[in-house]
Design brief:
This protein has about 625 residues and is α/β, with parallel strands linked by helices. It contains 24 helices and 16 strands. The strands form four sheets. A six-stranded mixed beta sheet has the order 6-8-9-10-7-11, with helices on both faces. The protein has a five-stranded mixed beta sheet with strand order 1-4-3-2-5, with helices on one face. The protein has a three-stranded antiparallel beta sheet with strand order 13-12-16.
């Protein structure tokens, strides 16, 4: 497409040039005024003319004052004919210097030929470019097998170093070794150490795998060949393998260097486990990678970094010693890491004095590095939209909610009845979350629609949590069901607003039983085989590895968990109905309650002894 536009521009410019040349010759480069014959006659009679020059069908007139003008005449007419026809006194004509010129050769011929020549030239140029772009496509087809790896040289502009990657301390520690090896390989070979060949970066999307790989190259100051796993897989079988070969050949030439294969799971999936599809191609590509990695001379300073967020689907052959034997895990950032990442990304952004990145970090559990970078960007956009030069705390908090739940939809007007229903629903969530002992404290309650949700209750953990007990989960389910329960208690029936709550509650209850072994009746085992298969591009997630009878039991157990939780929620809503009414009244009036406003009504959340003692 780009090529097409470029060709068109060249074509257009050529056209303009030719047109300019043409108009130059035909206009003879002079800008004389064109006048009619009657003016000429008048000027002759007034004796204003000093000279005329006749060329073809034109009479060029030079006036005594020095200006010149052009008169067109008919082809057959001569000047003397005109003089005669208009009865001009011959003595007046005698004073004029008359010159008859042949049309000059070049001028004449251009005048005749150009009108024919121009379309011809244009068409030729057009055909030339057409042919050229077809050829381009052809030669690209021939280059298929070559690797498309982008080499980022030593001097690349946006060089990244370890300092730009916040958090992930352990990962950086591990990768420092790799940097050391790239810098002084002799140090290792002298003591007979086999140097790492492949390092696999594992982590959820957005945790900074790609960033960290670039930082390794930046620190070691070596070339960096980066290629994404999916780029190996093309339309034609065999292309992937030849690309791998080409990539490794290029890398060996510029050793020491780093080859970075991003999203390696695209080629490195377990072999022979898929059904149909482009499987052979992937297998060949993977085999070629393995062959190349084995074929390294132990002294080549080439290190292969690869990144994936699906280590579970990788082929075991990739993971054995001598290949990707190092594994570096990038965790989701904890509180301190989040603050550090925010600090890195706020460097070029003017933040208000009141902004506390620590408080932002507290509000964003579960955010990855990419989410946090995006969050700050959203806040900057928000500030710019409000024509401010400085990003405020409010901008950032607004963006947190926007990133989590989609933009506020203030335009959605709720009828009074809907507004009331939503208020009871959200107040139900909030009250139950507040009064159950183990749940996270409420941060914000709102009945302004956001993304898919009609309203929302935001609650956040006080600290990062990695483990949950069954009681905590059941309370979580109770909070999810609280909106439904509140609607039912107050109005006697429920609305569609509770749909996604119910889905999530049911999903969580199922997980407790099938994944976490938290059901007493079914015992400590998991249900359902999560091994993934790909069939016609669709992932089939779960395979049942239990009997029909167990399935029935699971269903029953899910219902009983839900019942317990719903009962718990109902208990809170009934005993705290005065608080519920107060919250609803406040929501109807203000629409949104921040943590402080909420706590003014219900008091501070009381944490049970056991949880504090943790
Ligand atoms: P992935 O793990 O999916 O490859 P990336 O490395 O592409 O994630 O991260 C995306 C973006 O998120 C980075 O460009 C960077 O701006 C930001 N980011 C992620 N992790 C960090 C981190 N630890 N420190 C600073 N920025 C980070
Ligand atoms: Mg990435
Ligand atoms: Zn709800």
């Amino acid at each position: 497409m780009k090529n097409l536009i470029k060709n068109f521009l060249i074509f257009f410019t050529t056209f303009l040039l030719i047109a300019a040349v043409f108009s130059y010759f035909s206009g003879n480069g002079q800008k004389s005024e064109v006048v009619g014959i009657d003016t000429l006659i008048k000027q002759i009679n007034d004796q204003e003319i000093s000279q005329v020059a006749i060329t073809g069908n034109e009479i060029k007139v030079t006036l005594k004052q020095g200006q010149s003008e052009v008169v067109k005449k008919e082809a057959g007419d001569t000047f003397s004919q005109i003089v005669k026809d208009y009865n001009i006194d011959p003595s007046k004509v005698a004073a004029i210097k008359i010159e008859v010129k042949d049309e000059t050769g070049l001028n004449y011929w251009l005048g005749v030929i150009l009108p024919f020549l121009i379309p011809f030239i244009l068409i030729s140029v057009f055909i030339y470019f057409m042919l050229r772009s077809v050829q381009g496509a052809n030669s690209k087809a021939m280059m298929f097998g070559q690797s498309q790896a982008k080499e980022i040289g030593r001097e690349f502009k946006d060089k990244v170093i370890f300092k730009d990657v916040a958090g992930v301390k352990e990962a950086k520690e591990e990768l420092k070794e790799v940097v050391e090896f790239l810098k002084n390989p002799q140090k290792f070979s002298e003591v007979g150490a086999r140097t790492p060949r492949g390092v696999l970066l594992l982590g959820a999307p957005g945790t900074g795998k790609t960033l960290l790989a670039r930082a390794v190259a930046g620190e070691a100051n070596v070339p960096f060949f980066s290629l994404s796993g999916s780029e190996f897989v093309e339309m034609f079988v065999g292309v992937g393998a030849s690309r791998v070969r080409d990539l490794f050949r290029r890398a060996k030439k510029s050793a020491p260097c780093i080859i970075f294969i991003d999203e390696i799971d695209a080629v490195g999936r377990k072999r022979g486990s898929g059904l149909g599809g482009s499987h052979d191609e992937r297998e060949q590509t993977l085999n070629q990678i393995l062959v190349e990695m084995d074929g390294f001379d132990p002294n080549t300073n080439v290190i292969v970094l690869a990144a994936t967020n699906r280590p579970d689907v990788l082929d075991p052959a990739l993971l054995r010693p001598g290949r990707f034997d190092r594994r570096v895990i990038l965790d989701e950032p904890d509180l301190a890491d989040r603050e550090a990442i925010l600090k890195v990304h706020s460097k070029k952004k003017p933040l208000g004095k009141e902004v506390s990145l620590k408080r932002v970090a507290e509000r964003t559990p579960g955010f990855t590095g990419a989410d946090l970078a995006n969050l700050l960007n959203e806040s900057a956009i928000l500030a710019a939209m409000k024509n401010r030069k400085i990003i405020s705390m409010e901008d950032i908090f607004d963006s947190v909610e926007k990133v989590m739940m989609g933009p506020e939809r203030k335009s959605r007007i709720l009828s009074n009845k809907e507004k009331k229903t939503t208020a009871y629903h959200e107040a139900g969530h909030a009250i139950v979350a507040h009064f159950l002992p183990l749940t996270d404290p409420v941060q914000k309650v709102s009945i302004i629609a956001r993304g898919q949700a009609g309203g929302y209750t935001l609650k956040l953990p006080l600290e990062d949590k990695h483990m949950y007990s069954k009681t905590e989960y059941l309370e979580e389910i109770a909070v999810l069901l609280a909106g439904y329960v509140a609607e039912q208690e107050i109005f006697g029936e429920v609305t569609t607003g509770a749909t996604s709550d119910l889905r999530r509650a049911t999903g969580l209850a199922r997980k407790l039983i099938t994944d976490y072994g938290m059901s007493e009746t079914l015992g400590p085992r998991t249900f359902g085989d999560k091994e993934e298969m790909i069939f016609l591009g669709r992932e089939i997630h779960e395979q049942r590895d239990y009997s029909e009878k167990i399935a029935e039991q699971i269903d029953k157990e899910i219902s009983s968990f839900i019942d317990v939780a719903a009962h718990q929620a109902k208990g809170v809503i009934k005993t705290k109905s005065d608080f519920l009414e107060k919250i609803v009244a406040a929501l109807m009036e203000r629409e949104t309650l921040e943590k402080e406003e909420f706590e003014q009504i219900v008091g501070k959340k009381v944490k049970p002894e056991s949880s504090v003692a943790k």
